[in-house]
Design brief:
Blueprint lengths: L4 H9 L5 H7 L7 H10 L6 H4 L10 H6 L23 E3 L2 E5 L2 E5 L29 H9 L5 E5 L8 H12 L6 E5 L2 H4 L6 H9 L3 E7 L8 H12 L3 E7 L8 H13 L3 E6 L14 H14 L7 E4 L8 E2 L14
Helix pairs in contact: 7-9
Length: 341
């Protein structure tokens, strides 16, 4: 049975927000709390209980926990890390519209997320000052109508699927009325965090749009992909959407070949093609997650030896001002040079 919309909203409202509760639920040492509380003052804790249920009790190094637990390292200054590492402020073309690449624009549909990932490159983004929903996206739509060179709109955030389905259906219908738009790309982690979100209302407007839909999910570790997530992804796939995954390479989470191999295999089991493996965006507060480029290249090359090519995600970084993601190729004799993709 497909969950009702009230189910996901209730699950979202019940998310864990207090570090003390998270520590208690997992049976962790209360010695973690002072640092967690200090770090949460800068960037609050938020994590759905269903995601917590996939964590290993009593393990402070659980790879899912590491992605969400505020820690002391977030407060340490690190050279080269900033609040806007991708210089997105310079790409703002209209309220909520980021136009960084030819042929496509990104619409920041909402600043809300179901989880606060500690490595999030938009953890300092001024969502309150740049809210496209404040005037029903009219300024964004007006901009799109003037840009006949734009063929794809990317719904991002926050997480765009935290908006009500009636508002999303209306927005997508208005986007489909822009004559030169052909594709709708959705960047949403919700099927992984709140599989309840994939309900009848969402599936209805998704299946009805004439735009070609590409859904990019965000899973970093195979333990995130339980049976409920697999069912949710299957429902999305049945609408005709293409499913891709982007992950971030994170120290202590997924920086080893067995984990990456298992992630690719489990994604493909659920009909999701591994797409991008991002080097960390250098946002202030996330330096402890960084994996050196040389290690990342060695990891990618081992995956290419152990997996079919279509199961090996592209190792990329995003650099301000570049025309696309930069593929990190390394120094091996057969690796391609760095390219923009």
């Amino acid at each position: 049975m497909i969950p009702r919309s009230a189910d996901w909203k209730n699950a979202l409202a019940a998310a864990v927000r207090d570090p003390a509760e998270l520590v208690a639920l997992l049976g962790l040492s209360r010695e973690l709390l002072p640092a967690a509380r200090r770090a949460a003052e800068r960037f609050p804790l938020r994590v759905p209980r269903g995601y917590v249920a996939r964590m290993r009790p009593g393990d402070p190094n659980d790879p899912l926990l590491r992605q969400v637990l505020p820690v002391e390292a977030e407060m340490a200054a690190a050279a080269g890390y900033s609040e806007d590492p991708l210089e997105e402020a310079a790409a703002s073309a209209a309220p909520g519209v980021l136009h960084k690449y030819d042929g496509r624009v990104l619409l920041v549909a909402t600043g809300a997320c179901a989880v606060h990932c500690r490595y999030c490159f938009r953890r300092h983004f001024p969502y309150g000052e740049d809210n496209p929903a404040a005037d029903d996206w009219q300024a964004a739509l007006d901009y799109l109508h003037t840009r006949s060179d734009v063929h794809e709109v990317i719904l991002s955030g926050g997480d765009p699927l935290l908006l009500d389905d009636r508002r999303l259906a209306d927005l997508v219908e208005r986007l489909a009325a822009v004559p030169h738009l052909r594709r709708l790309r959705i960047h949403s982690r919700l099927p992984v965090l709140l599989p309840e979100r994939v309900d009848e209302a969402l599936l209805a407007w998704l299946a009805a749009t004439p735009l070609q839909v590409v859904w990019v999910v965000h899973s970093n570790h195979p333990n995130e992909l339980d049976a409920a997530v697999g069912q949710a992804l299957g429902r999305v796939r049945q609408t005709g959407a293409t499913l891709l995954n982007q992950a971030v390479l994170l120290r202590g989470v997924n920086d080893d070949a067995p984990t990456q191999r298992a992630l690719s295999e489990r994604l493909l089991d659920h009909g999701v093609l591994p797409y991008y493996l991002h080097l960390l965006d250098r946002v202030r507060g996330a330096a402890h997650f960084e994996v050196p480029e040389a290690e990342a290249v060695a990891l990618r090359e081992r995956l290419r030896q152990e997996l079919p090519g279509y199961m090996v995600p592209r190792l990329v970084r995003e650099q301000p001002g570049e025309p696309g993601k930069t593929e990190v190729a390394g120094d091996s004799a057969w690796a391609h040079p760095a390219t923009h993709i």
